[in-house]
Amino acid sequence: MPRPVIALVGRPNVGKSTLFNQMTRTRDALVADFSGLTRDRKYGEGRYEGHRFIVIDTGGLSGDDAGLDAEMARQSLQAVDEADQVLFLVDGRAGLTAGDHLIAEQLRRHGKPAHLVVNKTDGQDPEMAAAEFYELGYESVFLIAASHNRGVRSMLESLFPDMLEEPEEDEADKWPGIRIGVVGRPNVGKSTLTNRLLGEERVVVYDLPGTTRDSIYIPYERHGEEYTLIDTAGVRRRKNVNEAVEKFSIIKTLQAVEDAHVVVVVVDARDGLVDQDLHLIGFVLEAGRSLVLAFNKWDGMSVEDRESVKREVDRRLPFVGFADKHYISALHGSGVGLLYDSIHEAYDSAMTKWPTRRLTEILLGAVQQHQPPVVRGRRVKLRYAHQGGSNPPRIVVHGNQVESLPDAYRRFLENTFRKVLDIWGTPIRFEFRSGENPYAGKPNELNARQKARKSRMMRHVKKNEKKKKQKKRRG
């Protein structure tokens, strides 16, 4: 099932970005003690008890916005449209304001399930701080101190019991073959590439950014093999594209990445790599999906520009050295057919199963080549490895003191396994587990013979100590 989406809205400087950082366990949102710092929507992945959801941080609303504030308000209300649930934050120290009343009225007009969150209740009686906010008419009111992470966990427990149940069977499991997600910024040629991969006009292509609004699953066959292509922005007839009701497809893109086996990230070669491309690649890696990079609009570029792009790719993308990079023209079809070879190689690497014996041999060979470090006077020992899952490949390494392994040695192990197993196009997840001491916390039970021996030893020790004291007094 698609991951639930939660939007954080409220007046400026009520703590939305601080709560965003707590829910996503990151510091991605800028936080400072003045209003208006967040202007655009910011998306993050929240995790709770093994379940995941998407959090949207928004700029501040005042209820009567103009100029730049009006654009921030539009961004915030668009986030409300995208969300499944809305958290309306208010400032428990500042008290109820006219702006809070206006925002509450706007949220009621949108009709989305909304919940009141009274923030900054630390240092005062929470119930007293929240008392005046009850006149806004919300049934569920949560009292938190986001800066201290107080009340956030209990809020999630009571707020989303249905959302956080065990996920149902993934909708994408209904689609056959290798699922290929095509993602990228608006107007980089995703739909044109989709049509080339399909070999027919199946997706609306229009020379304006953001033509596609939703994701679409397209099952098809090629050379007797089944595929499902996921175009991360969807099909809509041109006459139905209405900017007034446009919903930018970030949410659908993130969900399509989760559904795919292999993700083709399309980059506009003429624009070069931009931060949004890097964020998208990072999300694909965080999701553990196989990756293929396609630099589109390669036709018509000069030799100097092409060399400049390749140097920039080598400089800014060393962390995805395992991913194939293709320089293509989706419009003319040059280089598109080669994508399928990389897609198959990445899929096979992500889904391959290896026996425990094989993985343990590679681990012991790596240890023999380069010993783990010595920690607290004892060398870290790595004993055996086994596979813990696929897509992405997950390798579990057992040993002692593994929590003390430095990042450099972990990267050495990853590179060794990747090279020996010929894993290409997919990230690898490593888990390190220490064996538990079976006698930890248990008293040492002595039998009768051991007790008698211990008693004799103690008498002998005391006798020697007595002699030493007597000798010391005489001397």
TrEMBL record:
Binding-site list for GTP 1: 10-17, 57-61, 119-122
Protein residues bound to GTP 2: 184-191, 231-235, 296-299
SUPFAM superfamilies per record: P-loop containing nucleoside triphosphate hydrolases
CDD domains in alphabetical order: EngA1 (cd01894), EngA2 (cd01895)
Protein name in the entry: GTPase Der
One Gene Ontology biological process: ribosome biogenesis
Biased composition (Basic residues): 450-475
SMART domains for the chain: AAA (SM00382)
InterPro entries: AAA+_ATPase, G_ENGA, GTP-bd, GTPase_Der, KH_dom-like, KH_dom-like_a/b, P-loop_NTPase, Small_GTP-bd
Repeat found in the keyword field: yes
Domain EngA-type G as annotated: residue spans: 4-167, 178-351
GO molecular function terms attached to this record: GTP binding; ribosome binding
Subunit-structure text: Associates with the 50S ribosomal subunit.
Region described as Disordered: 435-475
Role according to the record: GTPase that plays an essential role in the late steps of ribosome biogenesis.
A Pfam cross-reference name: KH_dom-like
NCBIfam families xrefs: GTPase_EngA, small_GTP
PANTHER family: GTPASE DER
Species this chain originates from: Tamilnaduibacter salinus
